[in-house]
Amino acid sequence: MKTRIIKLIGYTIIVLCILASCDNGEGFTYEPYIRGQDWSWGYMHGAVERPLTGEKISVSHVQHPSLKGRQGHRYMLLHRPDIEKEGLFRYMSFCFNDKEAYNYDVNKRTKDMLPSLSILRLTLVNNFLEGTILKIEDGDLFVDLDGGGFDHNFNSSISIEFYDNADYVDHVAMKPLRYVPDKNNPFLVHLDIVEPYTGYTPAVVLEGRLEGVLYREDNPEDYMIVDISFGM
């Protein structure tokens, strides 16, 4: 009995020491994502300018597990009837223009945090060749079918969605301002580096630059100039 009590006291002391080390910040720490190994690795550096309002938004982000994911991406293999084989789709979404407000509860946001939120959505389809420049004319991930319904867009696409209130992101009843490419002025994606992921075949590491103008769907005089280097 005495031995059991001593063991219980010993375990209690160990648990208290672990809790104390966590409180002091000396416990578990998040390690940065590793390029080519961690699927969530990624970065964004550059600026987005909106001349109509005079806004110039600096973007500097390196994805890290200690922060709420601001840059999400994934890949899918989908059958493409236009080429009669599977195609590789790479999706990326990046939240910006919120001064981290989106990462906090409403009651924890300070006055210098903007409640608004902008999301850049990029889809790249097949032919990821190093040194190429993709010309993107589409702004939609899905396309309507003639007989009704919809399907994946087999062309690469890019858009920016702007929400006045970040709490309504992806809310069905809340339609954001959308900025998309003009077919007469395609958006450019420079693919400077294309490398295979370790253990994620057929996924690849992509690095390059986003360069171009996206126009508001219902008012082309309102547009956003994008110049951002990226990795995903």
Can you describe this structure in just a few lines?
The protein has one helix and 13 strands, in the order αβββββββββββββ. The strands form two sheets. Strands 1, 2, 3, 4, 5, 6, 9, 10, 11, 12 and 13 form an eleven-stranded antiparallel beta sheet that branches. Strand 12 and strand 13 (219-231) form a beta hairpin.
Note down, in words, how this protein is organized.
The chain is mainly β and 232 residues long. The protein has one helix at 2-23; strands spanning 43-50, 55-62, 71-80, 85-96, 117-125, 132-136, 142-144, 150-152, 157-163, 177-180, 187-196, 204-216, 219-231. Strands 1, 2, 3, 4, 5, 6, 9, 10, 11, 12 and 13 form an eleven-stranded antiparallel beta sheet that branches. Strands 7-8 form a two-stranded antiparallel sheet. It starts with a helix and ends with a strand. Mean pLDDT is 79; it is low at 2-25.
Oligomer: single chain
Instruction: Outline the low-pLDDT stretches.
Output: 2-25
Q: Give the number of DSSP strands.
A: 13
Q: Please count the helical segments.
A: 1
Biggest beta-sheet profile: 11 strands, antiparallel
Structural class: mainly beta
Q: Can you tell me the overall shape?
A: globular
SSE layout and pairings?
Elements (H helix, E strand, L loop, with lengths): L1 H22 L19 E8 L4 E8 L8 E10 L4 E12 L20 E9 L6 E5 L5 E3 L5 E3 L4 E7 L13 E4 L6 E10 L7 E13 L2 E13 L1
Antiparallel strand pairs: 1-2, 1-13, 3-4, 4-5, 5-9, 6-11, 7-8, 9-10, 10-12, 11-12, 12-13
Characteristics of this structure?
globular, mainly beta, two-stranded antiparallel ribbon, 232 residues, 13 strands
